[in-house]
Amino acid sequence: MNKRTCIIMCCAALLTFCVQAQQSNTVASINTQQVDSSIKVSVVDKLIKVSNAPQNSKMEIYNIVGSKVHEIEMKHASGEYLLSLPKGYYIVRIEGIVRKIVIR
Question: How far from the centroid of its chain's Cα atoms is residue 90's Cα?
Fold first, then answer.
């Protein structure tokens, strides 16, 4: 699969999750918007760093096809988690907030 196809598939999956998140969180849209801008997700090697997430939330990681590949219970608002996933593009969902990551 070439790079352009991967990017197109990743964008399509991200758009799908954003629409689902918006539909499922219409009641709590004010709180989601406030939390949305502050959640930070970054990846260094196979370590994913999350900051400013809601406490006791669940982080779900999906591949670009939309299949859930990993789930982490987050006890704290910020933390570092070791991932054992192959290289590629992934979508991270935390309490309806969606972020895109790349594992290299």
Answer: 7
Integer Cα distance of 97 and 93 in angstroms: 5
pLDDT of residue 1: 62
Q: Taking the model in full, what pTM does it have?
A: 0.64
CB atoms within 10 A of CB 91: 22
Instruction: Select from 73, 68, 74, 67 the least CA-distant residue to 52.
Output: 74
pLDDT, tens only, 16-27: 665 555 554 443
Q: Tokens at residue 96, please?
A: 């309806």
Taking only the tens place, the pLDDT of each residue in 62-90 is: 999 999 999 999 999 999 999 899 999 99
Tell me if residue 26 falls in helix, strand or coil. coil
Angle formed at CA 103 by CA 68 and CA 31, multiple of 5 degrees:
60
User: Two tokens at 72?
Assistant: 């982490």
